[in-house]
Every structure is written in structure tokens, then in C-alpha cells.
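Long-time lurker. I teach an intro course on protein structure, and each term I like to show students one example going from raw sequence to a predicted 3D structure in C-alpha cell notation. This year I'd like something fresh instead of my usual example. Would anyone be willing to generate the C-alpha cells for the chain below so I can use it in lecture? Attribution to the forum is fine with me.
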Amino acid sequence: MTNDAAKQRCQEDGGHLADVKTQDLHDFLVSQIMKVDGSESHWIGLQYLSGEWRWSDGTAAVFTNWAPGEPNNPDQQCVNLRQPVGFRWDDNQCTKTKHFICQIGPVITCPTRYELFMGKCYRFSVDRKPYNESRATCHEEGGRLATVKNNETHNFLANHVRATTKAHTWIGLTDEATEGLWVWDYGTLLVGDGIWGTGEPNGGTGENCVHIYPDKDYLWNDRICPSSYYYICEI
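-- Reply from a regular --
Happy to contribute to a lecture. Here you go:
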């Protein structure tokens, strides 16, 4: 569709063309494109208006991911994730036809020090605390220890740990109340097998709290809850 037609279609669905305000969101959208049709370029919600690049919600673009040499044409005022350059951003004529990405729901703004991923905000601590103190800190900030219900979220969190502290990091999962019954910080049960490291969980009643474990390829491990580790809060 043309850019205007894509906007109209998104509006009919109650949304707008996607506002790609972080690298993590950009990477997530590209991963979804590759699952559906990695051969096509896709419109996003960035357009050149009143002398600057603005998102669908009217805010100016701060984060950008332009392909080399872009933007390069004042007559090309709409932006797409361009397939031939690895889905980096490219300005193009708005009348061109492309696939497109809609966003439904409000644009989420994360608190200071938090990062947006898949509609949630995450903060990676720079201090280490026991599990219960980590959980209390997250609650004081209006959130909870991170819930990891899919591989995409796990990969985002684990890759961040891998790229920064490379250290044990608490997430919000424990069987402290009932051995073998794993419960997320906000009260729901773990569904499915989880994303455990080889041989885990193996601590029985002695290891009741879960962390991202560098020694097992940043998968999950159960550990004694008083251990002082980094932690991830989610809002």
C-alpha cells in the first residue's frame, strides 16, 4: 500500500503506523518481519513534517537507524524499513507501495533508567541484592521482578546481561511457597517447561529463586534466595 493507505488501514484497526523509538523495538520488529516475509520493505510511522522527522504521535525522532547515506532526498518524506539494506531506515516517496507495520494502543514511555521491549519497561540493576530485597526494590518503583513468558523476552533480557554485567541476575520466579510450584512475582504460575539450563532446576527445597545463569548460556537456574545478584525490574 501507499503510505497514506497504510495509515488509513492502521486507523481502521484502531492504531497507527509503528513508532520505532528504540533499537530494541526496531530489532523486535525486524525479527517479526523475518518470520512473516523477509523479502519486503515496510512502512513505519516516521514522516518529514514541518522541517523535522516526526512519529505518528507527533514527537520528534530522537533514536534513528538510517541506512548509510540516508535520508538523502527532500522529495522523499516517508520512511520504510528497507529490505535490501537489512531493514535499516530509508526515506522514500509516500506514493510508493510497500508492506507496513501497525501499532495498536498508546505509545509507552518508560520511566528513567527503564528500557522498552514488547510493551513492557525493564530496568537492569547496577547493584546486587538478595532475591527478596530485589523484589522489594522493584515493588517500591511500582513494578515487579521481571516476568519472562516467551523466548523473545528471555533473549532480550539475557542478551542485555551478556553484553553488560555478564553476571547472575534475578528474575521474578520462585517456588519458595510450595516446592516445585513455580510462581511469577505477580502471582501467576509458570506455564510450560520454562527456559532452564541443562539439568535445572535441581536445587530442591534449598534453591527456590531463579536467575539468569551465565555459566549455562544465560538460561535459568534455581539458587538460594539470600544470594546477592543483579536483578531486573519490570513495569
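Some talking points for your students: Residues 23-36 form the longest helix (14 residues). Residues 115-234 form a domain with the Mannose-Binding Protein A; Chain A fold (CATH 3.10.100.10).
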